[in-house]
Amino acid sequence: MRRVVVTGLGAMTPIGNTVQDYLKGLQNGVSGAGLITQFDASLFKTKFACEVKGFNAEDHMHRREARRIDRFSQFALVVADEAMKDSGLDVEKIDLDKAGVIWASGIGGLHSLEEEVESFLKGDGTPRYNPFIIPKIIGDIAAGHISIKFGFRGVNYSTVSACSSSSHAISNAMDYIRLGRADVVITGGSEATVAKLCIGGFNSMKALSTRNDDFKTASRPFDLDRDGFVLGEGAGGLVLEEYEHAKKRGAKIYAEIVGAGATADAHHITAPHPEGLGARNVMKMALNDAKMNPEDIDYVNVHGTSTPLGDIAETKAIRQVFGEHAYNMNISSTKSMTGHLLGAAGAIESIAGILAINHNFVPPTINHFTDDPDLDNKLNLTFNQAQEREVNAVLSNTFGFGGHNSSVIFKKLKD
């Protein structure tokens, strides 16, 4: 199969609105949490989230276009544009029939849906709806917008697998290029779910942290006092390209994507398998796909949501897969900084891993105060401060409601 490399990156996150700003946030262990500004959350159990700061769609697109697309698609277009500019690809010089988009969102245009329903309920019952409401809310529309923007006529679709969505998009994009069906694919994911329905819904199932008096430190993966995840929003975009295609045009190459896995827990709609069975299997699958040994991995960017059950199950799986090497690796959860971007989590966390490879550091798991005796505290979970080390290979995990698991492996390019 053909080799696949990463030649462009774009990011819009709660700790940085560009890749460079995101890198600084990761290196400095910045918390992206703050009180919710997008609606009045005073009556909700959770009043905070990790929002994107200072974003104005009209800084990036015409006002008329911004009004016709949902916030999640706005994020998608902005990061795809950053990734394409970063890649240096000239659309006049590539085969547009072999250039595609595989983009993810776990939920789609939730903001627009909420606004339309609220508007209807305030009216006299006459069904008056925005003519753009359906294309604003459907989950595949961001992929469509990106392909239209760049004229990419190849593969074009969206992946939906809850919090694993964008990792699945990235792995699918890799396979399309490996198999010769595409030369270039823009991939990743976007999510804009800091909305009443999401906060209220996750509150009702007791999934969110309610640490309103100390929201900056509320996302506490692996800490004894973790009480749920912190909702985030944003997007991550990657340009994947066939190696010889990139080499021929003298492209800057960030990393090679060498393996991926996809499994199911087949256990419960929201809870992970208690022994981490699906997580164990997906990491093994990714290693086998990459033809790598566990000892080849330097850093695992874990799903690490800060939930009581999930963090325990994932560390059990890591010990089962990596054995004694688990104590030589670095492990960290960047969700401690960004919050949980749901369908976009895999994209920004893959970018965190790629940045770790390029800058030889491991982003920290911030907000750690008390060891959990139910966890293996000999693991290097990179607490509170970034650590410098040579990083040649990174495995990134994402797991979603429904028991969906995905792992992706990136490594330094070696001819």
Task: Give structural attributes.
alpha/beta, single chain, 10-stranded mixed beta sheet, 415 residues, 18% strand, 13 helices, two-stranded antiparallel sheet
What does this 3D model show about the protein?
There is one protein chain. 57% of the residues are buried. This protein has 13 helices and 14 strands. Helix content is 33%, strand content 18%. The chain has helices at 19-28, 63-68, 71-87, 110-122, 133-137, 141-150, 165-178, 196-204, 243-248, 277-290, 308-322, 335-338, 345-359, and strands at 4-12, 34-35, 48-49, 99-104, 156-159, 184-191, 234-242, 255-264, 299-301, 330-332, 361-362, 387-388, 393-400, 404-411. It has a 10-stranded mixed beta sheet, sandwiched between helices. A two-stranded antiparallel sheet has the order 2-3. A two-stranded antiparallel ribbon has the order 11-12. With 415 residues, it is of the alpha/beta class.
What does this entry show, briefly?
Helix content is 33%, strand content 18%. It is an alpha/beta fold and 415 residues long.
List the helices and strands and how they pair.
Blueprint lengths: L3 E9 L6 H10 L5 E2 L12 E2 L13 H6 L2 H17 L11 E6 L5 H13 L10 H5 L3 H10 L5 E4 L5 H14 L5 E8 L4 H9 L29 E9 H6 L6 E10 L12 H14 L8 E3 L6 H15 L7 E3 L2 H4 L6 H15 L1 E2 L24 E2 L4 E8 L3 E8 L4
